[in-house]
């Protein structure tokens, strides 16, 4: 039996590390996962197979979690294939997208079409167990499964609010080459910014995405010492609606009218960082909308 799924990366509006409430919005950086599930007739635990580029702690943990949910029993052999357009460890939610893609692919191989919340909660558990996310990042997972802004309480794995995206908006990404540190090691540093995190969370809950992103990025810049303030001011002067550190960075995400993105790209530093202009994720994954 075979299942496939496409999910997407996302950018941060509010980072949940500080106060538990997170907000993210999906962007058109896809992850494609495919899983073939067979039985070898044994009583052994599940066996996982795949090329080195299709395996890793997050993939393996996501597939095992999905097999336990949708293929209980023994003698299972799962063969995985992965293609991802998301830079790893740059704050663009690669781990959440990979995890949700494989959970959904395994579920579809078993003939199930789980809700985005079910997939997102399974992926959040994977993130916590593997250690790639201290909070589980339910907001990131759901943002890559459905279009629009999503606000979640990552302490309770619940959805607090959803919001639509202005169809005229697009995203400019400034992606330095250095990876960010794992989030579990930053819990205490972000805990000291709890009050600021709560302000950003309240703004997101009210639907004020611009204020939420600004408050969050000021918090992250203080904590991780990213020198983006002057650049953000220049981007705002050039017509950006909002800009901020995505996740733990080092990516700076710029939201602006799509027509202004090429001009704003000229404001970015001329250095080794990658620059990408991307759309918000507005269409459901290939294979149909999950209920």
What attributes does this structure have?
alpha+beta; disordered C terminus; Alpha-Beta Plaits; 9 helices; 291 residues; four-stranded antiparallel beta sheet; Ribosomal Protein S5, domain 2; six-stranded mixed beta sheet; globular; single chain
Question: What does it look like?
Answer:
The chain is an alpha+beta fold. The protein folds into two domains: 2-163, Ribosomal Protein S5, domain 2 (2-Layer Sandwich), CATH 3.30.230.10; 169-278, Alpha-Beta Plaits. It has nine helices and ten strands. The chain has helices spanning 57-70, 94-109, 116-130, 138-143, 187-191, 194-205, 209-224, 229-237, 261-265, and strands at residues 2-14, 21-39, 47-50, 76-84, 149-153, 158-163, 169-175, 242-245, 252-257, 274-278. The strands form two sheets. Strands 1, 2, 3, 4, 5 and 6 form a six-stranded mixed β-sheet that branches. Strand 5 and strand 6 (158-163) form a beta hairpin. Helix 1 runs parallel beside helix 2, helix 1 (57-70) packs across helix 3 and helix 6 (194-205) packs antiparallel against helix 7 (209-224). The longest helix is centred in the middle third of the chain and has 16 residues, at 94-109.
